[in-house]
Amino acid sequence: MAVPPLTTVPWNGHVGAASFTFDDAMENQVKNLTPILEEMPDVRVTFFLSNMGGNSLRQNGAGFAKLANMGNEIGNHTDNHLQLPDQDDANLKSEITDFATEIEKVMAENGAEINITSHATPFCANNEKVSGEINQHHFINRDCGWHGRNDWDVEPEWLGMASRVWNSSETADTELLEALDTAAFIGDFSNANPWDVQVKGGSWLVLLNHGVSDEGGMSITPEAIKNAFQRALKNDLWVAPFSTVGAYHKAHFIMDKAEGTANDKEYKISWEMPHPHMPKSIPLKVKLNEEFLKESGFTADDNIVIEQNNNEIQPDENGIYTIEFCDLSLTIKKSAGTSKLKSTISTKRKTDGNHSGIFDLNGKRLNTRNRPKNSTPTFLFP
Predict the structure, then answer these.
(1) By C-alpha distance, which of 163, 94, 119, 84 is closest to 275?
(2) Rounded Cα gap, residues 351 and 349, in angstroms
(3) pLDDT averaged over consecutive 10-residue blocks of the chain (382 residues)?
(4) Which DSSP helix (H) or strand (E) runs through 269?
């Protein structure tokens, strides 16, 4: 077909996304974030582990394994936190690729089976050689600096993604909340300076934090980080780990271009995994392209389903299907069920019962979040 059959729903059905990342495997992260995250099941974050300043990975392995089993991501921040561009090939392999395997081993020893898919460069020091080694075991890498926002339809530099760094200034807490407002497209951006990065809609904000304590310095207080989590949820941001949002974002550039092959009113779509080290499960929310449906001859009396692994996936009341990207194929077909095409391609905005979920990197649903009835799901087509 000339028209791609499917369109991915931006940011898992939210106005934008926020990924909070925490570097260096600090004990105060385990101590102070665990109770907060236990209270807030709609928030899941990323911990980039290293052995900087001692055997941090092994000393705090049990605590981070518990956080991993709660659905938080464990990522790679290198063994010794060195300036990577200064290292030779053997040291780069030891610091990056070998250490990813070491993290997985330590987590397994503490009861958490994880899959390392993300990396964060120490000191934000990166170059082509460093990125090449990162690419051996990770599909995405976080650098730092700048505003840390990513627009939906602009493909980022996956192995050199910028992030907004929390600082220790008197205005840092307020600026963090304002950044979360900007990611949710809250505010008036019409008078922004033309040389500034223009804010055009909801975006994915990547945030870099270190310690979580009242000690000062580069540590954000538990109260401030909890306020930030609450602000992100209030703004209807998808608060999910770096790899979770990154994989969803990366998958959409593949899915939205995938074309179907017709066979007796069934359309088989297949695609390839964009990187060998992606999360094991990538639940993706998609809508059928109305122009595709018209060209394909479907009518308002047809009940259309998506089938994967011999399982029919029915659309929700907003015409949205949740597919598994890692299955690498699907079939669009008619079904004998009672749901009709008119509910699938309805242009009416519906707000009641609209659900979105948090999944871990293995695809396990960790919760179901209900939107308030007075909210407007901006991801729907007008």
Answers:
(1) 119
(2) 7
(3) 88 98 96 98 98 86 98 97 98 98 98 98 97 98 94 97 94 97 94 82 97 94 98 98 98 94 85 97 96 81 89 93 97 71 34 40 48 34 22
(4) strand 266-270
Segment holding 90, helix H or strand E: helix 89-92
Q: What string of DSSP letters covers 28-63? A: HHHHHHHHHHHH-TT---EEEE--TTSSHHHHTHHH
Rounded Cα gap, residues 185 and 189, in angstroms: 9
| Interior/surface letters 76-93, b for 16+ CB within 10 angstroms, e for the rest | bbbbebbebeebeeeebe
Distances (CA, A) of 321 to 111, 267, 288, 314, 330: 34, 16, 9, 6, 12
Q: Alpha-carbon distance 42 to 282, whole Å? A: 18
Nearest to 324 by CA among 359, 369, 284, 374: 284
Provide CB contacts within 8 A for 143, sequence distance 6+: 120, 121, 124, 126, 160, 161, 162, 163
List, in sequence order, every residue forming a beta bridge with 149; answer none if it has no partner: 205
Q: How many angstroms separate the CA atoms of 114 and 23, rounded?
A: 18
Q: How many residues make up the chain in this entry?
A: 382
- CA-to-CA separations, 45 to 66, 75, 239, 268, 282, in angstroms, rounded: 13, 10, 8, 36, 17
Going 121 to 122 to 124 to 129, the CA torsion angle's sign is negative
CA distances from 81 to 85, 89, 91, 92, 315 (A): 12, 16, 12, 11, 47
- Strand 140-142 to 149-150 pairing: unpaired
Strand partners, 377: none
Predicted pLDDT at 63: 98
Nearest of 50, 11, 281 to residue 149 by alpha carbon: 11
Residue 22 contacts residue 47 (beta carbons within 8 Å): yes
Q: With contact defined as beta carbons under 8 Å apart, do 104 and 361 qualify?
A: no
Beta strand 140-142 with 118-120 is parallel
Closest of 156, 157, 202 to residue 180, by C-alpha: 202
Sort strands 164-165 and 204-209 into parallel, antiparallel or unpaired. Answer: parallel
